[in-house]
Fold:
Amino acid sequence: MLNLYKTLRKQLLVAIEKTIQDIAPSPQSSGRALDPQLVAASKPEFGDFQVNIALSLAKELKQSPHGIAMRIVENLNIDQDFSALCNAPQIAGPGFINLRIKNQCLVAEIQARIKDKRLGVPLINSETPDAITPTVVVDFSSPNIAKEMHVGHLRSTIIGDSLARVLEFRGYSVLRINHVGDWGTQFGMLITHLKEVAPEALETANAVDLGDLVTFYREAKQRFDTDAVFQTTSRDEVVKLQRGDPLAKKAWELLCEQSRQEFKKIYDYLDVKLSERGESFYNPYLQNVVDDLNKKGMLVTDEGAKCVFLDGMYGKSGKPLPIIIQKSNGGFNYATTDLAALRYRFATPPEGDGACRLIYVTDAGQSNHFQGVFQVAKLANWIPKASRVEHVPFGLVQGEDGKKLKTRSGDTIRLRDLLDEAIDRAEADLRRRLKEESREETEVFITRVSKAVGLAAVKYADLSQNRVTNYQFSFDRMLSLQGNTAPYLLYALVRIAGISRKGGSLDIQGSSLEFKEPQEWALIRELLRFDETIAEVEEELLPNRLCNYLFELSQVFNRFYDQVPVLKASQPYRDSRLALCRLTADTLKLGMSLLGLPILERM
Ligand code: ARG
Structure:
């Protein structure tokens, strides 16, 4: 109902302005920025919206809030457009004005939605079609080469993908950037170690499994931490790589390619699209970062390292924390790469991405890193006016015992295994249900449904939590048909698809709709909240808002469907109710697709 909200707000501003002039005419007070304090009603009994401004005007106008509210209402009532939109306003408590949208306006909104594929969500440039499409960078997933992707990367992938989908749907040009860790000391160690233990891996593609590579990496890391000679050789190897030594470069490319193939399997599985642009991409821009900060007088040399010291950033010992831009050996840091990346992303094409908003999706453990990077960028004037940089942090994935997620034997869980297990469990559930209901289904059906349910369950369990908190991974909970789960939403969709299988055509034009039951009005109001939900996700980058909305919608729909006859109703109620079923299905499908969830008509 965002459009209705906006119209109401305008009408209110006129009425409030007039009220102020009526009570205390003064030339200065007119034309100032007023906020009518128009919010959603706190309870459905009160109507749709509530206006709170009378209370804050009382002091200035030296009148009771109630008196002011009465005047505002009088002035609203003169406005014919307002009277067409709302029932007579009610004043409640000390001076709140309660507003209820007229039934016929709600019906008109529903009719408009039935014809609108976007379900009331405008495109960003719908009012200025000639404007250029703004670009948003979503930096997400971003695993590290030669290491296995872990559940933290899974969270980043799932959350980042849904944010990207919402922004794409709004019409932004979204760059889905996979900022993979493909540079730095880890390669020096790995190459040095592989030269000894598995030289074939450095010369032939896929000579060893990624699993083995991960083991080799672990071994290399251990040697690096304990063996001084190994350390020096590894460092030399990094330098060789950075200087473009062809052998080192070839080995590096092979290692990257191998990881890439493995990552791709997961992305395909999850149906997530990403463009890889790893840390190495920014190598040519690193020196500029140092030079520019130096020119701006922001660099301090501390024990040979070039650093920026920021106000208010302190380490554990209480000493000011430096952001190291260039190490004493000349090497660059994770933060340097991120500064170069930030500049590149804001720079105008073709030298950059020309983005107006940068979104970084990583675990909350990197919050300090990003706050530091953003602060340096701000001080250096690298963040253009009217653009935004945001870190989207998320909590840890924990097992049901509240500890870090591990396998029974205590190893960290491989992502692929986790997804496979969700699918296996979904399949077992499905087979059990089929048996109970004596239903026959083909193996193709069982495979397809299990995969969709399993993946949807994992994704939804993650997205439906407020991302900032840690979240407990529980297969039982996420696969349950009860509660705020993907299977529950899918089931609501399946129910609606069932209506059309039973002969109710959902192909409704909606020209003559009529409603009379409270469950219908509740569903209508819920359906009309879709657009504001999307606007919230776009602003706050919290996918759980959309999950909660879809869950509430399914609940309100189920109540309607359980209590109000649809197929057995007489006309025009039958078609009107079918229209609500159809719109519920459309809203669920669109909402779920924006979360990156697969959709089923039968399960
Ligand atoms: N590779 C990093 C990690 O695995 C995440 C990178 C996030 N993106 C960024 N621009 N720093 O933790």
